[in-house]
Amino acid sequence: MTANPRGGRLTQAEIARIAGVSQATVSLVVNGRDEALTDDTRERVRAAIERTGYVANPIARVLAGGRNKLLGVHTFEKVFPLNGDDFYFPFLLGIEEEAESLGYDLLMFTSSGEQRRIFVDGRSRLNLADGALLLGRTPDMAEVAELARLGYPFVFIGHREIPGQALSYVAADYTDATAAVTRRLLELGHRRLAYLRLDAGGGQPGADRVAGYQLAARSARLGPAATPLWDVSGVDEAGAVLGDALDHGITALLVEQQILAEALAAACAARSVSIPADISVAVLGDTIGVRGSETDWSGFQVPKREMGAAATRLLIDQLEERVSRPHVESIACRPVEGSSIGPVKTPLAGGAAVPEPRRNRSITE
C-alpha cells in the first residue's frame, strides 16, 4: 500500500502521480466515465486506487485543502458505554465535545467480529476520514505500525510505543501519579509496600505505573525486597494475597485495578482487618469493571475526558499543519485524598524482625 507523502488524506492528484497519469484521467475512472481510456491506462489508475485504499469523497471538492472535516474514531474493542459510569464514557465525551467545538464531524469504526481490524482485504478502512483517533486497551500494534508507515494521520489515546517507529499519542502521566501515591505512603511511615496487578497489568500504561512506583522506592532507598511487584491471576485470589501481605509485614498495597482492590476489601472484612488502620490500600486509577464502590479509595483518577479532548485537538492541529507529526502530550492525573490509606501501624512489639517478603514474582507461582 502507498501513502500520501504529505501525510494527509489521499487526493486524486496523488493517485494520478502514482499511476503516472493526469488528475483528469483519475477523475474519469473514479466517476465511471472512462470509456475513452485505454485498458492499460484504466487498469493503472484502478491499481493505484486499490493499492492505496483511496476513497472518493465528493464533498471534499468544495472544501479547502481537500479535507472534509471528518474524524474517524477506531476502537479495538467494544467501548460504547452502558451508562455514565462506564470506563470509556468520559473519553468519548471529550472527543465529541472537542470535535464539535472545532467544527469537525465524527465517524465511528466498529467492525464486526471479536477482533476489530483497521485493514480489510489489504485496505485501510480509515481512509474514509481525514485522520483518526485510536482507542482501546488491546490494540493490534502490527496494524498500528502499518498505519504509521503509510503516513496516515492518527493519534492514539493512551501511551503506545512501537520499536523504531514514533507515534502520536495523548497519555495520562501514570508515572508521576503513581510516584506521588508511593511518596505519600512513605511519608506516612510505610517501609514495606507491595504493588498488585491483575494479569501482569495493563500494557504500557501499567508499565508506566510500575515505573513510578519503582522510582519513588529507589528515591527512598528501598530495595526490591521491601517493595515487591506481585502479579495476581484473578480477583478470587484476593484472600491469599492479603494473607501473604500480612504474613510478610507489608503495611501498604498499591493496587493497579480497582476491581482487585474491591476484592481485597471484601477479604479484609472477612478477616476483621481494617483499612487503613491495619493495612493501607491505594488504587491507581484503573476502574474497568467497577460499578460503584462503598470504599472511598485513595489514589488518583485518570483524566479521561481531558485526554479525549486533547487527542482530538492534537489530531486537528496536525491535519491543519499547526503541529508536526509525530507529537506526544502528557496530562496529569487528579490526586484523590480518599480514606483508604493512613499512618503505618505501630511496629511489632519488642523490636521483633519483620519477615522478609517473597521475591518479586507472581503470587500464584
Automatic annotation (TrEMBL):
> What SUPFAM superfamilies does this protein map onto?
lambda repressor-like DNA-binding domains (SSF47413), Periplasmic binding protein-like I (SSF53822)
Q: A Pfam family name for this chain?
A: Peripla_BP_3
Q: Which domain of life is it from?
A: Bacteria
Q: Which UniProt keywords apply?
A: DNA-binding, Repressor, Transcription, Transcription regulation
Question: What residue spans carry the Basic and acidic residues bias annotation?
Answer: 356-365
Protein's UniProt keywords contain Acyltransferase: no
**Disordered: region residues:** 342-365
Q: Which SMART domains match?
A: HTH_LACI
- Name all HTH lacI-type domain ranges: 10-65
Q: What PANTHER family does this protein map onto?
A: HTH-TYPE TRANSCRIPTIONAL REPRESSOR PURR-RELATED (PTHR30146:SF148), LACI-RELATED TRANSCRIPTIONAL REPRESSOR (PTHR30146)
Name the record gives this protein? LacI family DNA-binding transcriptional regulator
Q: Which organism is it from?
A: Actinomadura physcomitrii
